[in-house]
Amino acid sequence: MAIALNVIEPGTIGTYTDLVTKVADWLDRDDLTAQIPDFIALLESELRDKLRTTFQETLDIWTVEAGSYPLPDDVLAIRRLYPEGCPQATLKEVAADALPRFARASGWTRVFAIEGRTIKFAPASSTPFNVEVNYWRRIPPLSASAPENWLLRRRADIYLWGTLHYAAAFIRDPEAMTACRQYLDAAIEQLQQASRKDAWSGPLSPVGATQVRGAPC
User: Fold this and answer.
1) Count of domains for the chain
2) What is the pLDDT of residue 7?
3) Longest CA pairwise span in the chain (Å)
4) Which of 137, 162, 182 lies at the terminal end of a domain, its last residue?
5) pLDDT for 130-184, tens place per residue?
6) d(CA 183, CA 158)
7) Residue 206: which pLDDT band, with cuts at 50, 70 and 90?
8) How far apart are alpha carbons 162 and 43 in whole angstroms?
9) Which structural domain, as residue segments, surrounds residue 82?
10) Partners of 111 in the β-ladder
């Protein structure tokens, strides 16, 4: 059975329940209701690997002890990391197998590597220290107990078209799969364009000198 492709009415998809209801309406099938949460989860899995936008950027301060720190579950990738209060002293990411070479050096911590879900620093400090980190945050998954997130609030159409795409795959409807994928890809591109616009719309300011030797700041 083909999926009916109607027009999304503004303001009709504000929560997880709204999304499930709207998808069920568009599918117009009673036998797929139990699978809709799976379709949503499949979309979120795809978006985790695909989206890196300014809307996902998160700032935090981590206290590093014994040269390592367990990565929070919501970290997708680190964009920038530096000692607290020293933004000009960005730490460089290196491959995990290169870390021992830096660990033998002396002086300030200069590099980090990610091994599994742990971030390790070198040279390791003998005392705890704070780092400021800018990272891309994993999209918080929707559920009945977590009814909304930033993506649903900003681009409900991504959730709708993506969920319908995976529903169409489930019922083996290639025409609906293709149509929903086109709408989904267009909505994702619009989100990424908005992200790039936000990234470059800030006021221009002079770039300070970058310190390359000695103390980090």
Assistant:
1) 2
2) 46
3) 68
4) 137
5) 999 999 999 999 999 999 999 999 999 999 999 999 999 999 999 999 999 999 9
6) 8
7) very low
8) 6
9) 54-137
10) 92, 122
pTM for this model (two decimals): 0.80
* 76 Cβ neighbours under 8 A, 6+ residues apart: 48, 52, 56, 135, 136, 137, 138
Cα 57 to Cα 132: distance, rounded to the nearest angstrom: 13
Q: Percentage of residues in the chain with pLDDT exceeding 90?
A: 77
List the structure tokens of 157.
């159409």
Has residue 114 got a pLDDT over 70?
Answer: yes
Could you write out the three-class secondary structure of the chain?
CCCCCCCCCCCCCCCHHHHHHHHHHHHCCHHHHHHHHHHHHHHHHHHHHHCCCHHHEEEEEEEEECCEEECCCCEEEEEEEEECCCCCCCCEECCHHHHHHHHCCCCCCCEEEEECCEEEEECCCCCCEEEEEEEEECCCCCCCCCCCCHHHHHCHHHHHHHHHHHHHHHCCCHHHHHHHHHHHHHHHHHHHHHHHHHHHCCCCCCCCCCCCCCCCC
Under the banding of pLDDT at 50, 70 and 90, the label for residue 211 is very low
List, for residues 160-172, the tens digit of each pLDDT value.
999 999 999 999 9
Give the pLDDT confidence score for residue 198 in this predicted structure: 78
Interacting residues of 82 by C-beta distance below 8 A, sequence separation 6+: 88, 89, 90, 91, 131, 132, 216
Instruction: Please indicate, yes or no, if residue 214 is contained in any of the structural domains.
Output: no
Q: Which structure tokens are listed for 137?
A: 């945050």
With beta carbons less than 8 A apart as the criterion, state whether 155 and 187 touch.
Answer: yes
127 and 186 share one domain: no
